[in-house]
Amino acid sequence: MQSGFYGVYRVGHISLDWPLITSLVERWQPETHTFHLPIREMTVTLQDVAMILGLHIHGPPITGTCDIDWSLLCSELLGVVPPPSQIRRSSISARWLREQFSYPPTGVDDVILQRYAHAFILALLGGALFTNKTGTHVQLCYLPLLRDFIEISHYSWGSAVLAYLYRELCRVSLDSATEISGPITLLQVFRHNYLL
Description:
Elements: H1 6-11, H2 18-26, E1 28-29, E2 34-36, E3 41-42, H3 46-53, H4 70-78, E4 87-88, E5 91-93, H5 94-100, H6 110-129, E6 137-139, H7 149-152, H8 157-175, H9 184-194
Antiparallel strand pairs: 1-2, 2-3, 4-5, 5-6
Helix pairs in contact: 3-8
């Protein structure tokens, strides 16, 4: 809870209703960032993100660089250097991350628990909020932000998640893409909470 991601964790894994997601994507208007529905226009707002996922919507923006020695950073914050085959450009294999950090051993010290927490939050960010289309890799660019759990709880993660959702909806609606990524769980929960 200290890091500010408990709400995302609490939503958990839900089965996605792809016909519902597809119908929302088809109704997305990139010019106004709204869903054009037969009864009215609607959109996901920052307040929705805060209410559904429990993420902060005020605070410093999520910024950083991808020009980092990822092996060194993983050694520092995860306590292990992934094999080169598990790092692709600025992302790490989600499977490797899960296998290495599935459950912390019993009786470990706070440093080891923090490493597991870093890995868990990184997997949560890459697997639920900032997903890519394949879902096989997690972006490492968020890892430097996880150094201080108190500090990351003040960042405006909700703004970053909403911007990513809008970007993905616009990309899919304009490019006639066949797949969407991003915080799709947020979109589905929004639909069930506000449109029923």
